[in-house]
Amino acid sequence: MADSSLRRLAGELKNFLQACDEDEFINTAAAPAQTAAAGVSRTAAPLPPMREDSTLTIDFPRAQEPQPQPTISTEPLPAMMTTTQKQQALAELADTIKHCTRCPLGATRLNAVPGEGNIDAELMFVGEGPGYDEDRQGRPFVGRAGQLLDKMIAAMGLTREQVFIANIAKCHPMTDPQHPDKHGNDRAPNAGEIACCRKYLEQQIAIICPKYIVALGGVSAKALISDAKSLGALRGQFHNLSLDSVKLPRPVKILATFHPAALLRNPNWKKDAWKDLQMVMAEMGLKGPSR
Question: Is the pTM of this model over 0.90?
């Protein structure tokens, strides 16, 4: 009778281990503690006694063969540009962007919006795409969302002139391209538009080479952070930036937070966005504006 119970127990344990992955195991292990915390006691059933001469043998699943480690590149990183070199490279890139017609946005824009700011900035903000006001002025974040971004930057103890601001898409994505003068005609860039503009942004990042990037909104966060799933899953931690088309002269950390336009629609999210910015401030040694 005891042998039969032991064989049944061994079979159940084997099936359990085969079915569980790491996350499920952790959840299962935590379940008794959670139940107890909820005021429900759970007493484990006693195991059947084992004879002294009995041996319990369980065939565990074979461990996976170790995967080969990726080869570490020994190719040297590109050198940091001087300020003069950055000025020239960014000016040439901006001229290319202003004449770009690689995607349909180039046919409906009023002005391309390459980006602006301190070319030696340690901090860069990246949004999703220009809106109505940006399309008319050729500058990033100059509408209501831009005014809020200016306040966010000021709260960090910086000015707009000390950072660099750009977007994933360089031209205005519109819901109704036939009526560019209509207000409320903004939309997020689609995957094809992002693919066309991505190389421009990557070149800007490589030229400026900030130490930190704040991705404003899910569109820019998911475009720049590898294996991104959602903004909620990305917030609250730094990610190592890895670009597709260029190599960076030094490591760059990127953090995702809410887009200022989303904060205007949902003011309750401002406290969470502020927590994100405080993480950047702590990394950069910023203490906020002096009172």
Answer: no
- The reply to whether 18 and 143 lie within a common domain is no
Q: Are 238 and 214 in contact (CB under 8 A)?
A: no
- 101 and 45 together in one domain: no
Q: What's the rounded Cα separation, in Å, for the pair 248 and 72? A: 16
For the chain, 291 residues long, give each residue's pLDDT as a single digit of tens: 556 666 666 566 555 444 443 333 224 323 443 433 344 334 444 444 544 443 333 333 433 445 455 455 556 778 899 999 999 999 999 999 999 999 999 999 999 999 999 999 999 999 999 999 999 999 999 999 999 999 999 999 999 999 999 999 999 999 999 988 888 899 999 999 999 999 999 999 999 999 999 999 999 999 999 877 789 889 999 999 989 999 999 999 999 999 999 999 999 999 999 999 999 999 999 988 865
Q: Are 56 and 95 within one domain? A: no
Say which amino acid occupies 272.
Answer: D
Distance between CA 228 and CA 93 in Å, rounded? 28
Contact 231, 218 (CB under 8 A): yes
Domain that holds residue 180: 83-284
